[in-house]
């Protein structure tokens, strides 16, 4: 009996010893890091979090581009997520290092958040730390403008009721960075991010070190809002929110977003869902235009031939009521770019033939030319729409007034459509004293650059005669995007460098010459630069770079 009791006691001790490591492992939390820029924030967490309680997993794999998908397949489950990277316009986290291509697209986060194929990655998240600018900015991406109110009136609402509904729509569907992160990290108790400009990595790392030294690391992974951390970053605008819950007002928007992001849906089912979305008031469905664009771009010719996809497209094509409401909204859009984007989606959804789309765009360009003020974005759009030359015939239809090319904005739109006389007027605008005209010419030449060396020589001489330094600098910046390959143009710029009293102009000239054909640089160019250069800030001067380049080649 005594021996039996000893055996049972020994077996019990063995069981405790066997369970203890398992229990410790269960208590250990996984800290996932996405380091696409600075590693300072991650390193601070690593220094202060005990290794026996926190396990770090870097999700970025430099050897593969689909590293987030790889983490999903490996069934990684994060308790804490730390994202370090510059944050641009709510769409991507990226690095400022030119030799690093890693980035984290919000589309990938949406897919991971919405898809059943990646249900483990964020399922147990308690805290998210977003070290990037504007990650929790409350400013909406989409504004509900006058076009939405007019659309609701066309749908039968009174002007007052339409205005009220539009305001509510903006609140529910405007999609700020803060809303987007709350949608992505559903049910997460604590999401930290910045309402404005975030501190650089070394600064953020230093603040984190100070926080952990004074308050310890025991709060990490608990899911509670850390007031001490918020106070340490108070000067930098760190804020904390929670992910949306089942009854949150943003849940319908998440469902719509997940309809585009869930990789379990077939293309045909997604088309049916898009159709239902379009049957709502257009003022609402238009706010998801960017996602509709990304989806319709995937509808290749082979995809459209699939029986279920073809049938879904036929159902959309047959819905004339929704088609007319959609196109009426597009034609009435406040911004021409919105109108053009909606027109392209209409063709993708078989509501317009290619010829009908050209007619819609021609009508839009006529409306553009009829406006008093045409800006650089309008010119950029006109050139983009005609990048393949499909609207070349439209110039003759639109140039109905004899003085239409006297205005640089109208001339630039016509020049985008192949109008020769209009192009000459735009080149005159490049050397205008008006900054607005130079900007328009800049937008045009970005898409329709000068390729004729003689024309480039004439433009260079005209730029050299300009008297307004700011406009001249901008014109030189445009010239720098071209390849100067003749000695006369180089000599013209050299003479301008010697006589100008503007550091900005000298810097812009150097920007042109550093890209110019080396064989046409005059022998005395280096001496001219040294003798006539104006004082400038060290380390921020294109003249320094040009002098260094010339010295190396001499």
TrEMBL record:
Keyword annotations: Signal
Superkingdom as given in the UniProt entry: Bacteria
Annotated signal sequence range: 1-24
Full protein name: HEAT repeat domain-containing protein
Species name: Ramlibacter albus
Upper taxonomic lineage: Bacteria, Pseudomonadati, Pseudomonadota, Betaproteobacteria, Burkholderiales
